Amino acid sequence: AGLRVGIAELTNPSVASTRRITSTKHLVLLCDGMITEGTADPVQIAATARSANMRISTIAFSAQADVDLMNRIAAAGGGTSYIALDETQLTNVFRQIAATLPAVLTE
Fold first, then answer.
1. Cα 88 from chain centre
2. Contact 81, 73 (CB under 8 A)
């Protein structure tokens, strides 16, 4: 459900940033990779999002995470898959992700 909700937010026409058709939206899915709701294939959802100019990266935060699923979601979404098992690793992962985002300079 989290992946679908995130994509819905990135495509919500009432949010100004979603109306910029030339922008690439980057969704970061932070979860244990366990499917607990619904029957939709998250890899297919990610592939569909990618075709709509969205990028999806994943962060697995549990030692029991389905890392293979998280890797496949990120690959289908054109993003990168990470594992962060503690606060320090999570901070480092978010720094790595932030470094890949485009910077907009204004005067």
1. 20
2. yes
d(CA 22, CA 76): 20
**Cβ–Cβ under 8 Å, residues 64 and 32:** yes
How far CA 7 is from CA of 53, 83, 87, 90, 94, in Å, comes to: 11, 22, 26, 22, 19
pTM of the predicted model as reported, rounded to 2 decimal places: 0.82
Distance CA 74, CA 57 (A): 5
On whether the CB atoms of residues 79 and 49 are closer than 8 A, the answer is no
The residues facing 58 across adjacent strands are: 29, 81
Question: Cβ distance 1 to 37 under 8 Å?
Answer: yes
Please identify which residue in the block is written with the tokens 């470094």.
99
In this prediction, residue 10 carries a pLDDT of 80
Per-residue pLDDT of 33-54, as tens digits, reads 777 777 788 999 999 999 888 8
